[in-house]
């Protein structure tokens, strides 16, 4: 459950940095760097260990280690608690201590390596589909992409455009679902239409079979427009 686990450095690199730090602090120090394949590692099996360094938030883990050692017939470790350094630059959404999770969050939006040229991808336009439920952030992400220079195609707006009088799906929708779906001004009353199709899979499919191909055609037209604009 680490924050942004994808940005955690490889074990070999982390171990090399730790080794460099230990040798810099005290070259004569004896140490053993062990990869942890489980929550406890060698702390519950090594009879030569005498002390475990913990922080306020990991003390409970130290207690769990001693419980496991007693179950394994080993003496308890002395728990030596240290204070963690505060991060003077932490933001409101970050941990107060110096934390690798905070550092990884700060990497969001930065280019970690040059973009890879993939001959299988078209040079342009490069099409990204943005999808998600209500309130998932589609509009916010679209705005960010727009600020970066993306050409935005709003499928919701196209969905409304196909219904308007003179729109590509207007006459077929009215012919299929009847004049009772029309408002006094001749526009399609989406609430009345929705009552006819939602909850009725057959009717919903009749509607989408009319509307979706027209929306797809309009999307392709806008993609060509984006291509023309470079």
From TrEMBL:
Note whether Nucleotide-binding occurs among the keywords: yes
Q: Which SUPFAM superfamilies match?
A: P-loop containing nucleoside triphosphate hydrolases
PANTHER family, from UniProt? BIFUNCTIONAL COENZYME A SYNTHASE-RELATED, DEPHOSPHO-COA KINASE-RELATED
Protein name as it appears in the record: COASY synthase
Task: Give the matching PROSITE patterns.
Answer: DPCK
Organism encoding this protein: Brachypteracias leptosomus (short-legged ground-roller)
- One GO-annotated biological process of the protein: coenzyme A biosynthetic process
- Gene Ontology molecular function, alphabetical: ATP binding; dephospho-CoA kinase activity
- Does the keyword section mention ATP-binding? yes
Q: Which UniProt keywords apply?
A: ATP-binding, Nucleotide-binding
Pfam families annotated for this entry? Answer: CoaE
Signal peptide positions (record): none
Gene3D superfamilies, A to Z: HUPs (3.40.50.620), P-loop containing nucleotide triphosphate hydrolases (3.40.50.300)
Supply the InterPro entries for this chain.
Answer: Depp_CoAkinase (IPR001977), P-loop_NTPase (IPR027417), Rossmann-like_a/b/a_fold (IPR014729)
